[in-house]
Amino acid sequence: MNQKYSLTALVKYFLKLGTTGFGGPVALIGYMHTDLVEKRKWITNEDYKEGLALSQLAPGPLAAQLAIYLGYVDFKITGATLAGIAFVIPSFVMVVGLGYAYMLYNGLPWMHSMFYGVGAAVIGIMAVSSFKLTRKTVGKNLLLWIIFVVMMATTAITERENVWLILASGFVVWFHKSAPPVKHSCQYFLIHPCLLQISASISFDEKLISIWWFFLKAGTFVFGSGLAIVPFLYGSVVQENHWLTGQQFLDAVAVAMITPGPVVITVGFIGYLVAGFPGAYVAALATFLPCYLFTIIPAPYFKKYGKKPGIKAFVDGVTTAAIGAIAGAVIVLAKRQFTDMLSVLIAVITVLLLLRFKIPEPVIIIAAAITGLLIIK
Fold first, then answer.
1. Residue 130 domain-assigned?
2. Helices 206-221, 163-178: crossing angle, 10 deg rounding
3. Is residue 59 assigned to a domain?
4. By the number of CB atoms within 10 A of the CB, which of 132, 216, 234, 293 ranks highest?
């Protein structure tokens, strides 16, 4: 039996978590379980598990989706909306502030020196995250290993994430394990095109409209942890639209690493670099809107359908493909970041520290920034 609590108390909790919650999605969902299920007893363990399952199934940032679902449990749409906003807004304010400082001081040598060290450390962090996710998710399953390798190679070679290949991976595993009748599969999966039919009749300028539609697509089709969005963003932000340089993009990922809250908040930093505060706001709103809808729309029905084998199989395939894309993105970004042996050394030391010791990622990022400032003149 869960303890009674107010919506105000829940919002205050997520504001605090969004302000102080470092460590990425795995750490954040762990904090929610410890605080809301074990300590405060606001949320039952069953509700928590159902929210986590739904969050893993739907595209978008895992931790933000779980926060939205937990807000929905007792306060429905109002709770889901306020919990999601409270969780995301602190890190959004931080990355916009960092974006302002980045644009203001980008021409100064110390800024480049700092991000030289940070960029190399980010490569190491992404490599370790990819390794841990792969070991935990793929295991000894041959089909999942094939999907992982194909997706990693495709992303590394083409330097962009193939959304359709990720979705196809989900259907391959779904068909292999337990293919339900076609009428059931339509019921589960055809929600995606429906949610894409969102009106574009907004009085933005052309660049803001482009930002809106691109990040809406990113939020709609990217599965996995917060880092899963990195290869998807890189292909379009750097390769196709040329909104940012490769180094600016890596700096944006680094900013997401050193701030609390969801890693996906890097979209706010990217949007600010492209079009100032309006760009940051539009990018963040477009990215988080799909995950909000994918959480509150199926929430009432998830208890009935969420445990079906077909759904779980689809999630396994999509998650594996997303992890493969992360591994491929590490290769792509490393080719641009490793300009000398010193940058390679920083990344290797980062990997060793994360594998041997439980050092928080922000601590490593700060140490790498100081290293860059001290070494690069």
1. yes
2. 20
3. no
4. 234
Query: Amino acid identity, residue 206?
Result: E
Tokens representing residue 197 in the block: 């039919």
Distant-in-sequence, close-in-space partners of 103: CB < 8 Å, separation ≥ 6 = 272, 273
H helical segments located in 161-225: 163-178, 182-189, 191-196, 206-221
pLDDT in tens, 188-233: 433 343 333 333 333 447 889 999 999 998 888 766 556 667 777 8
The tokens for 233 are 């963003």
Print the domain residue range for 227. 109-375
Number of domains in the chain: 1
What span, in angstroms and rounded, lies between the C-alpha atoms of 278 and 242? 19
Residue 255 token pair? 């900013």
Alpha-carbon span 163 to 185, nearest angstrom? 19
Is 310 contained in some domain? Answer: yes
Alpha-carbon span 264 to 319, nearest angstrom: 16
Asked if 212 and 287 touch (Cβ cutoff 8 Å), the reply is no
Q: pLDDT (tens digit, 9 = 90+) per residue, 363-377? A: 888 898 899 888 875
